[in-house]
Structure formats: C-alpha cells, structure tokens
C-alpha cells in the first residue's frame, strides 16, 4: 500500500518561483528525468518493498529536490518513527522515538531543523535549540494528548496536590511543560517517576501511560484523562483473537495502549524499544500494536519477519508529506516560535529529563 503523499498536487510552478525569490539557485526539475532516476536509485532501493517501481517517478523528483535544498540551506530533517517510508528512508537525516529526537535536537549541527512529526516535537526542538530556525511542514499536525491539557490545568493540579512532583509526557505544549517539574517519554517514564524518591507522583496527561507506569513501580501514580487517539482504540479482545488464531504471533505494544492491551503483549516499549525488539528477536510473525508506518519502516531490514495487522494511522503524523517538506524548505514557511519566558521554564523540564542518568 502506498500513501497519497505525492498525489497532493502542490503547484510545481509556484514552488519554483518561490525558490527563485528566496535565492535558492539550484532548484532541480520536478520532472522525472533520467538524471533524477539515477540520483535517487539508491534511495528507491530502501523503499522498494513499499512503493511499486511504477509509482517512484511521482516521488523521486521531490526526494531529489528536498535533499539538494536541504544541503543548500544547511538544514537537517528530524523524522519520527511514525513518518511514512519515503520520508523516513529517503529524506530524513535523523530518525527515532521522541526521546532520541529530543536528544538530537539539542546537539544537531545545522542552521535549520525541519521537524517531520507533530507540533509538540517541533516545539521541543525549538526549546532545545533556540538559536536555530525550526520549521514544521504542516502547522496543523497536532496530537490528541497535547490537546487534552493546558498550562492552567497543570496550575490547578499543583494547587490540588501541593508538593506532589509533576511529570509531564513530552506529548504536550510548551505551556504545559513550563508548569511541570520534569518531562518524560514512553522510553523513560518509569525511571523519571522513580527519580524523585517520593511515594506519590503526578504523571500527566496520558492516563494509559500512567497506568502502565504504575504497574511497574511502587510509586503511586496520579494522572489525567488524556488519551492517544491512535492507541486507545486497540482492545485486548482483538489481540487475543489473533493469538488464538495463530499462537506463534508475537505481540508488541506501545505503552499509550490501554493496560489490558499491554498486559497481553509479549513486550511493551517506546517506538524505538519496539523496533529494537523486532531487530533483536526476529520473530517469524509479529503484530506491532501502534501506528501503521512502524511496520513499513522496519520491514526491509528484517525480511524474514511477517508483520500482522492491526495497526492504526495517526492522522496528525500523516499530514507531513514530501510536497509539504519541499514547500517548507523552499519558502522557509511553518516556523515554530515559543514565548521566551515560557521557553525558559519549559526547557528546564525537558533538560532535566535529558540529563537524567541512564
Ligand atoms: P515514542 O516514539 O516516544 O514512543 O512516542 C510515540 C508517539 O505516539 C509519539 O507521538
Ligand atoms: Fe499524538 Fe497518538 Fe498521534 Fe502520537 S500517535 S502524535 S500520541 S495522536
């Protein structure tokens, strides 16, 4: 199955004239020429399992253009593991889970970061690299967790639970991070919750992540009613039905899933943790209980592994497409800003997490 990425018709003429206006000297053709075919063949090999050869001419000119303009602008592309294969394998410089991307944003050597992910990820990059221009190809790429809570809600929680540390998932706005003591990701949530050495911690806003953390620690974990719209839809019943039909299938779930889903899984972890599990264990059949691009992105590396559905699409992650990335780089559009006062406090919460010893 391929995505609609290159079928969204961005006007090629408009992109070219914008490129000229902004002084991009070597705007390549967006036609599929023999030169473009040769230049992108090694990249096609990375996605050949996913994109039929007959469709590559629709992708290749964008891939070539993005990679050239990226160099001219001294830009790097950070892409989350949920990005589509043509972004993940053909134009991204750094890929990873939320924790890896945050760490890379803090140390990346470039003038511009193009964040292929959702808005809170771009904000986190801006917090950690305030001197860099951070661009997101679609400003509307949001997140149901980030939208579930505001800074005012966190202030109210602090009043209600005085002295209880507030651990905030990175899937939140800078406003929410600024009111928090420390951030966490799905990769380090248990470690962060335990880092305070107290018996009660607020872990917000994902109630399922908090419940899954609570199952792994003696710390009492208080939470909020936020949910990931992608992971909340999985049920233990459907997974058990798959396992009953084929007991050999390994079930690997993300901790944003309901606890009863995580309970029936063979392994639960961040998107990096899930990829590492498949890489290290090479199960004959595996079900990645998460966003659909995960299986597409790792499939080529582990050809002996069969990926079994179900998976769900994140509509926010899927807003990022090759034409939009090119448009962003050419026009320098979609710049992400964070209020300076808010940024100081929000940065502390993210840096405290990054600086925690492993
Ligand atoms: P991780 O990649 O950190 O596991 O996060 C998953 C997710 O839902 C990001 O939006
Ligand atoms: Fe948000 Fe869930 Fe989409 Fe991640 S997958 S961006 S948590 S809605």
What this model shows, in words?
Its cofactor is [4Fe-4S] cluster. Belongs to the quinolinate synthase family. Type 2 subfamily. Its main location: cytoplasm. Pathway: Cofactor biosynthesis; NAD(+) biosynthesis; quinolinate from iminoaspartate: step 1/1. It catalyses: iminosuccinate + dihydroxyacetone phosphate = quinolinate + phosphate + 2 H2O + H(+). This protein is α/β, with parallel strands linked by helices and 358 residues long. It folds into 3 domains: 162 residues, Rossmann fold, CATH 3.40.50; 83 residues, 3-Layer(aba) Sandwich (Rossmann fold), CATH 3.40.50; 78 residues, 3-Layer(aba) Sandwich (Rossmann fold). Helices cover 44% and strands 13% of the residues. It is built from 16 helices and 12 strands. It has a 4-stranded parallel sheet, sandwiched between helices. The protein has a 4-stranded parallel sheet with strand order 6-5-7-8. Helix 3 packs parallel to helix 15. It is globular, with a radius of gyration of 21 Å. It starts with 11 loop residues before the first helix and ends with a helix. The N terminus is likely disordered. The structure holds 1,3-dihydroxyacetonephosphate and iron/sulfur cluster (SF4). The site of iron/sulfur cluster has 13 residues, from loops.
């Amino acid at each position: 199955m391929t995505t609609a990425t290159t079928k969204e018709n961005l006007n090629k003429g408009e992109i070219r004239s914008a490129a000229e206006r902004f002084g991009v000297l070597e705007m390549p053709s967006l036609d599929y020429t023999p030169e473009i075919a040769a230049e992108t063949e090694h990249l096609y090999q990375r996605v050949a399992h996913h994109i039929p050869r007959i469709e590559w001419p629709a992708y290749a000119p964008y891939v070539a253009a993005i990679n050239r303009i990226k160099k001219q602008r001294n830009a790097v592309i950070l892409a989350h593991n949920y990005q589509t294969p043509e972004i993940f394998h053909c134009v991204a410089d750094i890929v990873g889970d939320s924790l890896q991307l945050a760490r890379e944003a803090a140390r990346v050597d470039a003038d511009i970061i193009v964040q292929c992910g959702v808005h809170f990820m771009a904000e986190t990059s801006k917090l950690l690299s305030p001197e860099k221009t951070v661009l997101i190809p679609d400003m509307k790429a949001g997140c149901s967790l980030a939208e579930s809570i505001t800074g005012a809600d966190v202030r109210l929680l602090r009043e209600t639970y005085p002295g209880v540390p507030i651990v905030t998932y990175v899937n939140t706005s800078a406003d929410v991070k600024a009111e928090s003591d420390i951030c966490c990701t799905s990769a380090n949530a248990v470690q962060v919750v335990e880092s305070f050495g107290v018996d009660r911690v607020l872990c917000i806003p994902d109630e399922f992540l908090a419940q899954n953390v609570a199952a792994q620690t003696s710390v009492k974990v208080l939470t909020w009613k936020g949910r990931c719209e992608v992971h909340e839809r999985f049920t233990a019943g459907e997974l058990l039905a798959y396992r009953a039909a084929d007991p050999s299938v390994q079930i690997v779930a993300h901790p944003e899933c309901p606890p009863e889903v995580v309970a029936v899984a063979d392994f639960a972890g961040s998107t990096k943790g899930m990829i590492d599990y498949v890489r290290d264990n090479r199960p004959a059949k595996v079900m990645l209980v998460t966003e659909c691009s995960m299986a597409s992105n790792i499939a080529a590396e582990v050809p002996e592994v069969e990926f079994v559905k179900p998976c769900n699409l994140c509509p926010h992650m899927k807003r990022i497409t090759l034409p939009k990335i090119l448009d962003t780089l050419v026009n320098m559009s979609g710049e992400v800003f964070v209020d300076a006062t808010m940024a100081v406090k929000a940065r502390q919460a993210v840096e405290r997490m990054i600086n925690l010893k492993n």
